[in-house]
Amino acid sequence: MEYGKEYFRWRNNTIDRREWRDILNLAKMLLGSRHVLELGCGTGNLLEFLRDNGYIVVGLDISMYAVRKCREKGLIAIVASAEKPPFRDKAFDIVCSQHLLEHCHDDRTALYHSIRMARRGVIHIVPGHPSNDPTHVRNHYTEDMVRELIKGMLNATYFPDTGKPRDWIIFITLGDGDEPA
Length: 181
What we know:
Blueprint: H1 5-14, H2 18-29, E1 35-39, H3 45-52, E2 56-61, H4 64-72, E3 76-79, E4 92-98, H5 107-117, E5 118-127, H6 143-150, E6 156-160, E7 167-173
């Protein structure tokens, strides 16, 4: 399946908007953070939510269709892969995603780049329950899979989100000089 109009029509009807509040609350914990990069931004719904809550946002997605929709909403978005993003080190205060890592062939590389590009913190939400999304490389993450993904990373934690069915939130706080593991 391609990431085109039909995929995003389906995806926009299935997204858990309660997770936006989880991301916002964690972003607020990273005091002074204003610049946010969303990996796998899709058509920009989370970007709009964060922008409306005072953040300066940029989106990245592999779908030209999705990036075009973001730009139609007045958002800044580029076509690129989360596994090979074009941004310099520490270019953003926060790097986040909502259901992106399960689409990556190398989720650890995408996570590495998230940390590399962030100054203050990284927030990723991954599915903790079986999914019917045919574009997933990993159908969902078990707790053991999440633990293995962040193994060895300083200041990395994970916890279940507040929704049902349950997903996992990966939260990594960074300070000056923190480097990806």
